[in-house]
Sequence to fold (268 residues):
Amino acid sequence: MMWKKYLLFALLFPCFALANTSLWNYATIYQQNISNKNTYRLITFTNTKLNKTISFNVASFTQKHYRALLVDQPNVLDYFSGLSVSSNTKKHHAVLGVNGGYFTPNYAPLGLYIINHHILSSFNRSELLSGIVMINNHGQLFIRERNAYYKNAKYAFQAGPFLLRSNGRYIKKSKPFTDRRTLLATTKNNHILVISTTPATLAGVSYILKHYAKAFSEVGLKNAINLDGGTSTAMTLFFPNETPLVIPERLPVRTVLMFRLNEKSALN
Fold:
């Protein structure tokens, strides 16, 4: 409903209400509560010299006011098997769902993959899979370096590359290929950001996260990691009393990362 109008406006008229910066101009052009503690924002970044605009759909979850989980679809074989991210999100009574980790052309998990404490796929030392997304028994999500201990995780999967590391390092060069991206970030006060972008390079997104961190969080960002993107990029977000935001995947995905509101968050 309203978010669709703002997204269309951002794409057609990217210079609306932009902040003055030296390279990228940015603006939060729409904001909506998911609950009293969790929010959604649509942020656009425009670079007039490069003639580029990147839009970021950002869902922010406050520590202890969400419960994350992974849903595995082991029988996905083609576009007509398995459920979409949107259908899975609704089925599991989650408020947000995005595509999860990487998988091979035959939909086998690529790298570490843990569902309900069961290791379904072993650790992979590929440079691409530089981090681990872990969820504990309380549903709290953590982004860790790949040498982190993971065997106590309820859910876990490898992802990468890191777009922003805790030591401040970011991707300065990448292939010029642009595509939609799904990523996770942690703020310095431990909020979790779930982000879906319009087409961009990895280096472009990484640069923005590094140099414009306060556009996403006033306290700054601790780290950020890329999930499988491109044709897998998907996000479904259910707002109270408003049409859901649905960014559909172009090809089916095996893993769906979901966020539910915990009972206290839903009631307060």
About this structure: Residues 85 and 139 are 19 Å apart (CA to CA). The first helix runs from residue 2 to 12.
